[in-house]
Design a protein that fits this description.
α3 packs across α4 and α4 runs parallel beside α5. The strands form 2 sheets. Strands 7-8-9-4-10-11 form a 6-stranded mixed sheet, sandwiched between helices. Strands 1, 2, 3, 5 and 6 form a 5-stranded antiparallel sheet that branches. It is an alpha/beta fold. It has a single domain, classed as 3-Layer(aba) Sandwich (Rossmann fold). β1 and β2 form a beta hairpin. The model has no long low-confidence stretch (mean pLDDT about 90).
């Protein structure tokens, strides 16, 4: 079995003749938190959507557990891209019940994931009345329903207050301790620095750095160097 749960080989993608990903070759080790960093518009969300089956690359291949990615790979993948897809007129439990019916999963899993994200006592409160942090946690609960081995979170701290960010940070580290590989995309260096074991830095569609988080290494300096280098190359 491959030591990498997810790999890409020369992934490229264009929209209206503009190339937004340029030959991305990325390796995500199993059981880690992988932080995907980059400025806004760098191509992070496009890449995350490919990992979740929402887009396909124009060139290159994606591999899951050492084999070419197929739709079956989604059975082991949980996804939260941008805003959680919630029914605001339904309770937390009702939202998850809709998902279990669609996925053919047992209802008992609902209470398990609500406990994981600390939303078990929300009762009849509708999702539309939830704080942003609660909505994000409910979105993560939905992503956990199928017992994923890979969890994909795209900009999960957007709109959260400091307390919500701290809660989410603790959740993400907890998933890694349980053996779930987590890919977190963000443009906020400090957030990734506090949860990630490995980082990849994308700028102007190019993967400019990939490696482990090393104690004492200045991530901000590294990030700035990669962004400047790639922008100079693009110019």
């Amino acid at each position: 079995m491959s030591e990498f749960i997810l790999e890409t080989n020369g992934i490229s993608k264009s929209f209206a003749r503009q190339k937004v990903l340029k030959g991305i070759s990325l390796k995500v080790p199993q059981g880690c938190v992988y932080g995907l960093l980059g400025p806004n518009g760098a191509g992070k969300s496009t890449l995350m959507k490919m990992f979740s089956g929402m887009m396909r690359p124009d060139e290159g291949e994606i591999y899951f557990r050492g084999k070419r990615w197929t739709r079956d790979s989604l059975k082991e993948t949980g996804v939260l891209i941008e805003q959680p897809p919630l029914y605001e007129n339904l309770t937390a439990e009702e939202n998850l019940e809709v998902r279990t019916l669609l996925l053919g999963l047992p209802k008992r899993r609902i209470q398990e994931v609500l406990e994981i994200v600390d939303l078990k006592n929300t009762g009849k409160k509708r999702a539309g009345q939830f704080s942003m942090g609660m909505k994000q946690r409910l979105g993560i609960a939905a992503a956990l329903l199928n017992h994923p081995s890979l969890l994909i979170l795209d900009e999960p701290t957007n709109g959260l207050d400091p307390f919500g960010i701290q809660e989410l940070r603790e959740l993400i580290r907890g998933f890694a301790h349980e053996g779930i590989t987590v890919i977190v995309s963000s443009h906020i260096l400090s957030e990734v620095e506090q949860v990630a074991d490995y980082v990849g830095i994308i700028s102007d569609g190019v993967l400019g750095y990939q490696g482990g988080m090393k104690q004492g290494k200045d991530l901000e300096v590294l990030f700035t160097e990669v962004v400047r280098k790639n922008r100079g190359r693009a110019a």
